[in-house]
Structures are given as C-alpha cells and as structure tokens.
Amino acid sequence: MNVHDSERLSGLLEGAGYVRAPEGSDGDADVVVFNTCAVRENADNRLYGNLGRLAPMKTKRPGMQIAVGGCLAQKDRDTIVKRAPWVDVVFGTHNIGKLPVLLERARVQEEAQVEIAESLEAFPSTLPTRRESAYAAWVSISVGCNNTCTFCIVPALRGKEKDRRTGDILAEIEALVGEGVSEITLLGQNVNAYGSDIGDREAFSKLLRACGKIDGLERVRFTSPHPRDFTDDVIAAMAETPNVMPQLHMPMQSGSDTVLKAMRRSYRQERYLGIIDKVRAAIPHAAITTDIIVGFPGETEEDFEQTLHAVREARFAQAFTFQYSKRPGTPAATMEGQIPKEVVQARYLRLAALQEEISWDENKKQVGRTLELMVAEGEGRKDGATHRLSGRAPDNRLVHFTKPDVEVRPGDVVTVEITYAAPHHLLAEGATSDVRRTRAGDAWEKRNAAEAAKPAGVMLGLPTIGAPEPLPVAAGAGSGCGCD
C-alpha cells in the first residue's frame, strides 16, 4: 500500500510539472520526498538518518525542498520539523493529494508546512498515478482498518475502513488492461473485509469473479486478507475464477491461542489451519505465505512451540517473520511481560531455520513441473552474470530461467520446466519451450522508449516494488501486521 501511495505521489508531482531525477542523484534534486511507514521501529531510525544525510546537501542548495509524508508523518506530525527543521513539508496519510500545493506554499512563504488531515480527503485511486510497472499494477479497493489488534498502529494512522465502489474498481482495472497491464493486485488493509460498508459479506468474492470476466486480464492477486473474514465463498471464487492466481498471503501472527487472544486476533490456531486445509483442498497447487510475530509480550516457550507446530502443519511456501516491535500508542506497548531481546532473537532464529527447511522442501516439489512465467523486471539480481531472465509463476514463486534465443520482454509469458529448487527461488535450466509476446510486453517496450526521451528532474523516494526478502535477519524488530 505504501508503494501504491508512492506511485500516487509521483503522479501528482509529474502532473504538476516535475520530472524525475536520475537514480541516486537525490543530493542534486530540487525535491526529495520520503513516503514513510510506522509499523516497525526501524522506519523511524531510517527516516531521521536519511534526513540527517540530506541536511548538508540542502545547506549547499538553498532552493532544495524536502517533504515527509505517510504513516510516520501522520504519527509524529510537528515532531519531524522539530527534529529536522530543514524539512519543508509534512503531510499525512489522508491528504497526499495536497503535496504539490504544500511544496509551492512552503516555497512562497519560506517556512515549513505541516498539514495532517484527520480523515480521508479523496480516495487515493482518484489521484494521478505514475505506475512503476507497465505490465503489473496495484488497485486499491479499500483504505483503513476496523480491527483493533493490540500490536498495530495502522488503524490509528489510516483510519476506519472505507470501501471503494465496485464499479470504480472495475473501471480502473479495465482502463489499466487497455493500457497493456495484464496483472493486477487488489489492495486493502484487510482486503477480504471489502463490503463491510454496505453489509455485503460476499462482496469480495463477487469482485474476484467480476475480475474474471475482464478480457485481457491474465492474473489477479490480492493482499492482505484477514482470517476472520476468509469465508468459503472467497475460496470458491479463487478456485473457480481462472485468472485468480493460486496464491494466498494470509497473516497468522502466532500459533498460540493465548497470544492470539492477547493480540485481539479474532481466530485461533484450529480456525486458521482449517482455512489452509480448505484452500488446499480446492486449489491443490496453491502457495500459501504468512506473517508471524516473534516475542509478543507474555509469549512463553509453550506459546512459541505452538507457533512452531502451526508452521509445521501449514507448510508455508514462505513466512515473513518479524521480531515484535513496541510501537508507542498501541495497547501492546504497555503490556506486562515484555520479552528480553536475547530471548526474542533466539526464538526468531529457531523459527527462521524451521521455515527455511519447509520452504526448501516445498520448492523441491516444484521440480519437474512445467510452468507459465510472467517475465519480470529487476527481480533477478544476478541475471546479467548468469545469462538468465526471471519471472513469476502463477503461485508467485520466483523462477530464474535460461535466456532464450528470441527477444523476451518484461510482461511477456514463457513456458519452462523447473529443474532445481533453492529455498527462495527456482531454476529452469533447460530451453524455454514457448515464448508468448503480449500486450503487456508491448506496453513495457513503449514505456521504455518514452522514458529514454525524458529529461531528468525530481528525485522521488520510492520503495522497491516486489515482495520483501523472506525471514530478514532484523536487529530491530517488527510487527508483521501485514499492513506495510
């Protein structure tokens, strides 16, 4: 969701006449924008570290402007300009559309502009967008969250859930497909709670089925669902709609019923694993991923063992595992039983080792399968040295494949046979059996030609698109709420 907001910010600035600066030239840019997250403590540290690095650059270039937006700005407000008085603009999660106006006002008045709205001013998808991919797009279907998880600060910063009209969602998807996009990801803090505004518990499954009727839309994904709202009609829609991919990312957070209750998660281990069983019965090749928090206040060794048990039972393809991060303003921050850092770290490493073993075992089951991959851009860091390309399988597994003799562009589709499995990727070392040139590939080619002709300009602080590295060895801790 933060990536999608960054695309909106980029689109707003380009619409106001700014152009992007070359990569890595933030010190020479006229404007630098930071879009922030507040889910984990290291986001604070990274922001103020980056602001400190830019301070001497701004001193040398008095006309340079720095803007800070997003969840951390919504949370810290005036604190940002107190700690970093060289910041020109601070804006929150509800008024990202104001950025160009605030930059101009700061320039004219020669003083910092801090504007934090308390409620949503315009649904983000109504704003201009500068999408980072020509072939895959995020589509927001709701904003905010109605849950009260004790570890999570997001509801306080994003507000109550607000659903977007189904007709507007489908119109945006159809327009994207018309531009060459062939894969969309539906976004929401709790994406499958869609419809709560109108009291329709089957609204999300209906939306999935409607996506299946859009001609030219090849792949549909969604993130992140909540187990509480994961009903049988959603599973049926996933299984029966051909372009809905066999992939599910569903945060578990803990396998302990006691910890889940303390987290105010409205399900228990048995309910969660029951959903996994139903999904696998309906979609045998589904890849299921999750989020897990280690070291939540009061977590005992027995509680942690229950999490290990649930991980063994669920057989996740990947788990994004975080050490609990105390966030001021959340109920968990003041709970008794805060776990010592060394205990959390030890448990984290044990869980990481278990999940690494399971991920590898599950990937080995893919060897010998023939898969259609959508060719990706920037997903294979060693592709140049290995003479390979990279793509995503229908279940979203990353596959590196031998570069075929014919031209292949991001967005095109290739058919390969999996020959080797590593814990976090697959290899297809044989010849590509089929290459299908697509409208998405045409769109990528057209965009690249247009980008080459553009002048350099504003540098935007955009995060990298794509799934984060699994099981990060983080010294700082995290919430793993599935909201960032």
Automatic annotation (TrEMBL):
Residue ranges constituting the Radical SAM core domain according to the UniProt record: 131-362
Top-level taxon of origin: Bacteria
Free-text cofactor note: Binds 2 [4Fe-4S] clusters. One cluster is coordinated with 3 cysteines and an exchangeable S-adenosyl-L-methionine.
Catalysed reactions, as listed in the record: N(6)-dimethylallyladenosine(37) in tRNA + (sulfur carrier)-SH + AH2 + 2 S-adenosyl-L-methionine = 2-methylsulfanyl-N(6)-dimethylallyladenosine(37) in tRNA + (sulfur carrier)-H + 5'-deoxyadenosine + L-methionine + A + S-adenosyl-L-homocysteine + 2 H(+)
Keyword Lyase set for record: no
One protein family per Pfam: UPF0004
SMART domains reported for this sequence: Elp3
SUPFAM superfamilies: Radical SAM enzymes
GO cellular component entries: cytosol
EC number(s) on file: 2.8.4.3
List of residues binding [4Fe-4S] cluster: C145, C149, C152
Compartment list: Cytoplasm
GO molecular function annotation: 4 iron, 4 sulfur cluster binding; metal ion binding; tRNA-2-methylthio-N(6)-dimethylallyladenosine(37) synthase activity
Cofactor requirement: [4Fe-4S] cluster
Subunit structure of this chain's protein: Monomer.
PANTHER family: CDK5 REGULATORY SUBUNIT-ASSOCIATED PROTEIN 1, MITOCHONDRIAL TRNA METHYLTHIOTRANSFERASE CDK5RAP1
Alphabetical list of NCBIfam families matching this protein: miaB-methiolase (TIGR01574), MiaB/RimO family radical SAM methylthiotransferase (TIGR00089)
Entry function: Catalyzes the methylthiolation of N6-(dimethylallyl)adenosine (i(6)A), leading to the formation of 2-methylthio-N6-(dimethylallyl)adenosine (ms(2)i(6)A) at position 37 in tRNAs that read codons beginning with uridine.
Family: Belongs to the methylthiotransferase family. MiaB subfamily.
Protein name, entry field: tRNA-2-methylthio-N(6)-dimethylallyladenosine synthase
UniProt organism field: Streptomyces aurantiacus
